[in-house]
Amino acid sequence: MLSINAVHHVAIICADYSVSKRFYTEVLGFAIIAEIYRSERKSYKLDLKVNEHFQLELFSFPESPERVSRPEACGLRHIAFLSTDIYADVASLQAFGIFVEPIRKDELTGKLFTFFADPDQLPLELYQK
């Protein structure tokens, strides 16, 4: 059996680096750990701190194909972020002009959750802690 006990990071490829960088840092509020430009790949790599244990990596690559998202495609379905105040977080997203689906209750856990999307329409979820 493997010794895996946590997720370290999720990597996201974006279409417009500056738009996605702004979304993940200014809208979602993730702190920048490191940002580099790899000239040989014509690509940015941005490491973002979600919390003490989890990171997002944001990449830009020229001419990346679009991600098929809807209807639901095979592969990564969404990224879920724990929220301590889902109503306040929804209001904050809406203040940035981001469409957020109505808040729903998880039938199994009784917890509240909702979905919104990043600039490339990657589905993101807020899940009430």
From TrEMBL:
Keywords in alphabetical order: Metal-binding
CDD domains from the UniProt entry: VOC_Bs_YwkD_like
Top-rank lineage group of the source organism: Bacteria
SUPFAM superfamilies to which the protein is assigned, alphabetical: Glyoxalase/Bleomycin resistance protein/Dihydroxybiphenyl dioxygenase (SSF54593)
Metal-binding among keywords: yes
Classification lineage: Bacteria, Pseudomonadati, Bacteroidota, Sphingobacteriia, Sphingobacteriales
Domain VOC: 6-129
Designated name of the protein: VOC domain-containing protein
Native source organism of the sequence: Arcticibacter svalbardensis MN12-7
Any GO MF annotation of the entry: metal ion binding
